[in-house]
């Protein structure tokens, strides 16, 4: 594998094994789940560093309130309702054309996560909810793929690197935390610098794993408050749970959770409900047909990726896979009724 020694000169000087480390990095595949504030910062670092392949997985589109901290997006992306994975791919492709970038506009759930991340050397957490993190943890332990957790809210941030069979897993670290909602960026806000400092920790640990240099790998969980100048670490040796249902007993509660044909979830703090039809990963809906139908009941916009309808007090975004985000309600029954009216069953 060729190494562009000029492009990567400053990091080749830094790497413990110079060009050999760079070659290793260029042979690796990373999946980032969630291309928001954390995900864009992570992708930016990895693509500039010359990772081999990167999968950008995100279900959402760019909104105005994202621009304060999500560094790969701009006002044009907001105005064209661009999916985050697509917008990020466009920016990253002109930053480093040597990297294979795969944008995936999809919701990550227990029906698709294994195929989305399979073949990855590492998974990076750019999500904003505990449920998806427990799901990532299940698939990490099942497939033996390390992952790096990070969470940010307000000016507080946390990160930990989870390596199957070596470190405690996420369920060991958070034994009593369910998937319920706590404070989120949508309810208490978030400082962009808190996101970026923790994404830098995550990306740095990613580099250590990807170039297979274990000497300084962290064996603790980091927690900091960048506003209040707090910094704490929690060594892993106190966190291993010998009875952990996930990493010891290999019970994958989140991955094996049986669901109906549709996944209905409220998008925390966003006054929105998402409905995801399961078992159909192909882009199959005829958006143009629905556009004609919908234009009789409200204002409709179509982009290459989604159809958007303003109907009554709701803003409805439909992706080609049949996934829909209904903004303007937190009532799942109303959302399901709208889904069957507008899309069918
Ligand atoms: Zn565990």
Automatic annotation (TrEMBL):
Coiled coil: none annotated. CDD domains: ThiF_MoeB_HesA_family (cd00757). It comes from the Bacteria. One of its GO terms (molecular function) is nucleotidyltransferase activity. Residues 8-246 form the THIF-type NAD/FAD binding fold domain. InterPro entries: ThiF/MoeB/HesA, ThiF_NAD_FAD-bd, Ubiquitin-activating_enz. Keywords: Nucleotidyltransferase, Transferase. This is Adenylyltransferase/sulfurtransferase. The lineage of its organism: Bacteria, Bacillati, Bacillota, Bacilli, Bacillales.
């Amino acid at each position: 594998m060729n190494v562009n020694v000029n492009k990567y000169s400053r990091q080749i000087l830094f790497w413990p094994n110079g060009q050999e480390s760079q070659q290793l990095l260029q042979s690796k595949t990373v999946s980032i789940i969630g291309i928001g504030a954390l995900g864009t910062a992570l992708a930016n670092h990895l693509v500039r560093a010359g990772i081999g392949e990167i999968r950008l997985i995100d279900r959402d589109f760019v909104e105005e309130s994202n621009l304060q901290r999500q560094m790969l997006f701009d006002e044009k992306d907001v105005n064209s309702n661009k999916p985050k994975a697509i917008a990020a791919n466009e920016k990253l492709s002109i930053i480093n054309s040597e990297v294979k970038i795969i944008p995936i506009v999809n919701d990550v759930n227990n029906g698709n996560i294994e195929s989305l991340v399979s073949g990855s050397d590492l998974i990076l957490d750019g999500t904003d909810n505990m449920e998806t993190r427990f799901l990532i943890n299940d698939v990490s332990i099942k497939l033996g793929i390390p992952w790096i957790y990070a969470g940010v809210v307000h000016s507080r941030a946390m990160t930990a690197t989870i390596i199957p069979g070596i470190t405690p897993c996420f369920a060991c670290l958070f034994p009593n935390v369910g998937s319920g909602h706590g404070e989120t960026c949508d309810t208490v806000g978030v400082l962009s610098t808190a996101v970026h400092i923790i994404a830098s920790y995550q990306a740095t640990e990613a580099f250590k794993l990807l170039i297979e240099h274990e000497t300084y790998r962290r064996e603790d969980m980091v927690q900091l408050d960048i506003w209040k100048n707090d910094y704490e670490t929690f060594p892993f040796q106190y966190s291993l749970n010998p009875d952990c249902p996930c990493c010891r007993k290999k019970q994958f509660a989140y991955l094996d959770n049986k669901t109906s044909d549709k996944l209905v979830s409220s998008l925390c703090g966003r006054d929105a409900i998402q409905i995801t039809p399961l078992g159909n990963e192909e882009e199959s809906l005829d958006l143009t047909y629905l556009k004609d139908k919908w234009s009789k009941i409200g204002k409709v916009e179509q982009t290459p990726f989604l159809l958007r309808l303003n109907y009554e007090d709701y803003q409805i975004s439909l992706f080609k896979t049949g996934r829909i985000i209904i903004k303007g309600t937190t009532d799942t029954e109303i959302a399901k009724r709208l889904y069957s009216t507008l899309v069918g069953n």
